[in-house]
Structures are given as structure tokens and as C-alpha cells.
């Protein structure tokens, strides 16, 4: 048995091709992400990976829409999104396949 601390993982990513990680794999990436209200991520797209975000708690805005606790957002390669935590938020994010450097910034207007 191995044991790890989420607080020691890189930005909440605990499965994937990261250091440190609880499980090294290229099959997928998994994270528990914690955001304070007002945190933003720029508009971006993934060209390889599908990204699934589960809102565990809080409210967020992604791709111009508001989402809350229990919502599951699935972004396929080519879907454009941005991100804003409207409240303190906890998300679980899964990306498959694991694809390092598969985040490409785009024009924010493409999220509307």
C-alpha cells in the first residue's frame, strides 16, 4: 500500500504523468481542484483530450454558462472554454487520454 497527500500533488492532479503523483499513467489525468471565488482561467481548447469536470461544490462559469453542485461538463477535443469560480468551488477533473501540454489558449470571444 502507498499513501499520499492531495496537498502535495501539483495543482490537485494526483493521477497522470506528473511529479509527484499517486499513479503515473498516460491513460488519463485526475485532479481535485479547489478555487477561491474570483479565480479565472483563460479561454483554451484541448486538441487531444476529452475533459470532464464535476462540480462538487460551489458555482462556476464555463464557456459562458453557469454551473453548480452536481453538474458534469464534458468538453471534447476542440470545444473552447474559459473558467471563473463564482463562489469558492471544489471540482473533480478527469482528462482522457492523459496528454501533457494539450492546453492551447484561444480568443476569449470564442467562448460566447
Which terms summarize this structure?
five-stranded antiparallel beta sheet, mainly beta, globular, 0% helix, 112 residues
Description:
InterPro entries: RmlC-like_jellyroll, RmlC_Cupin_sf. This is Cupin domain-containing protein. It comes from Paraburkholderia metrosideri. The protein has 112 residues and is mostly beta strands. The protein has a domain at 31-101: Jelly Rolls. 0% of the residues lie in helices and 46% in strands. It contains no helices and ten strands. The protein has strands at residues 13-15, 29-35, 40-45, 50-57, 59-62, 65-68, 72-75, 80-85, 89-96, 104-105. Strands 1-2-9-4-7 form a five-stranded antiparallel β-sheet, with no helix packed on it. A hairpin with a 2-residue loop joins β5 (59-62) and β6. The radius of gyration is 14 Å and the shape is globular. The model has no long low-confidence stretch (mean pLDDT 95).
Any idea what the shape is?
A: globular
Q: Describe the biggest sheet? A: 5 strands, antiparallel
Q: What are the secondary-structure elements, in order, as H or E? A: EEEEEEEEEE
Reading side by side through the largest sheet, how are the strands ordered?
1-2-9-4-7
* Total of DSSP H or I helical runs spanning 4+ residues: 0
Structural category is: mainly beta
Give the secondary structure arrangement, pairings included.
Blueprint: E1 13-15, E2 29-35, E3 40-45, E4 50-57, E5 59-62, E6 65-68, E7 72-75, E8 80-85, E9 89-96, E10 104-105
Antiparallel strand pairs: 1-2, 2-9, 3-8, 3-10, 4-7, 4-9, 5-6, 5-8
InterPro entries: RmlC-like_jellyroll, RmlC_Cupin_sf
Protein name: Cupin domain-containing protein
Organism: Paraburkholderia metrosideri
Amino acid at each position: 500500500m502507498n499513501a499520499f497527500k492531495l496537498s502535495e500533488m501539483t495543482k490537485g492532479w494526483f493521477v497522470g504523468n506528473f511529479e509527484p503523483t499517486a499513479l503515473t499513467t498516460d491513460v488519463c489525468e485526475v485532479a481535485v481542484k479547489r478555487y477561491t471565488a474570483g479565480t479565472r482561467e483563460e479561454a483554451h481548447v484541448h486538441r487531444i483530450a476529452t475533459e470532464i469536470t464535476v462540480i462538487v461544490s460551489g458555482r462556476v462559469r464555463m464557456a459562458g454558462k453557469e454551473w453548480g453542485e452536481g453538474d458534469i461538463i464534458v468538453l471534447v477535443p476542440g470545444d473552447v472554454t474559459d473558467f471563473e469560480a463564482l463562489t469558492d468551488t471544489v471540482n473533480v477533473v478527469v482528462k482522457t487520454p492523459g496528454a501533457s501540454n494539450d492546453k492551447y489558449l484561444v480568443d476569449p470571444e470564442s467562448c460566447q
